[in-house]
Design brief:
The complex is a heterodimer of chains A (111) and B (113). Helix content of chain A is 0%, strand content 47%. Chain A is mainly beta. In chain A, the strands form two sheets. In chain A, strands 1-9-8-3-4 form a five-stranded mixed β-sheet, with no helix packed on it. Chain A has a four-stranded antiparallel β-sheet with strand order 2-7-6-5, with no helix packed on it. The radius of gyration of chain A is 13 Å and the shape is globular. Chain A starts with 8 loop residues before the first strand and ends with a strand. Chain B is 0% helix and 53% strand. In chain B, β9 (87-94) and β10 (103-104) form a beta hairpin. Chains A and B meet through β3 and β4 of A and β4, β5, β9 and β10 of B.
């Protein structure tokens, strides 16, 4: 499984944008970039995914570098509820569909 | 609410015992995944089923087994329990086998004493 690298922790302020980086230099052509988050005492929650183009949904935006070796999850206006561990995961759609979680980034939001 | 139901929420048992964790997937989802989360290991993939058949296996111990039934619910059986098996066990489901997102339940917290 291709590996991703994320900062261990990040901090931001409420109502400000947050940019969560992820490096995946060994990504293959069939790997989709997925983001999940885990709020305290809950199971992981799907956030967004993409292959090559930038993606937007109601939760966040995903910006993918042109060479696909890195990506950034963007929370446009952070709330206290966005405090969670964010996982960037590469998912090979040609193989098994399992997700392999790394250590993720613990995001703290200050009021 | 993800639509994935896990029971029980909490389980306390002694070393050497056997327990069964149950998962009901979201309506319409055919794939079920099991994950273990402990403080020192993070989220570890255990096993995946698709429409009753085993599809992928991760770091699942031989003392652990799972199955997916015709009604698509799944059970994870843990036997000869050890203190180190204490963890949160999550079940997830997806439409599968596609790139569709996984939807996780809120987990079963297992404590082995």
């Amino acid at each position: 499984d291709a590996k991703t690298t994320q900062p261990n922790s990040m901090e931001s302020n409420e109502e400000e944008p947050v940019h969560l980086p992820c490096n995946h230099s060994t990504i293959s052509g069939t790997d989709y970039i997925h983001w999940y988050r885990q709020l305290p005492s809950q199971g992981p929650e799907y956030v967004i995914h993409g292959l090559t183009s930038n993606v937007n949904n109601r939760m966040a935006s995903l910006a993918i570098a042109e060479d696909r070796k890195s990506s950034t999850l963007i929370l446009h206006r952070a709330t206290l509820r966005d405090a969670a561990v964010y996982y960037c995961i590469l998912r090979d759609v040609q193989g098994a569909q399992k997700l392999v979680f790394g250590q993720g980034t613990r995001l703290t939001i200050n009021p | 609410d993800s639509g994935v139901t896990q029971t029980p929420k909490h389980l306390i048992t002694a070393t050497g015992q056997r327990v069964t964790l149950r998962c009901s997937p979201r309506s319409g989802d055919l794939s079920v995944y099991w994950y273990q989360q402990s403080l020192d290991q993070g989220l570890q993939f255990l096993i995946q089923y698709y429409n009753g058949e085993e599809r992928a296996k991760g770091n699942i111990l031989e003392r652990f087994s799972a199955q997916q039934f015709p009604d698509l619910h799944s059970e994870l059986n843990l036997s000869s329990l050890e203190l180190g098996d204490s963890a949160l066990y999550f079940c997830a489901s997806s439409m599968g086998p596609t790139n569709s997102p996984l939807h996780f339940g809120n987990g079963t917290r297992l404590t082995v004493t």
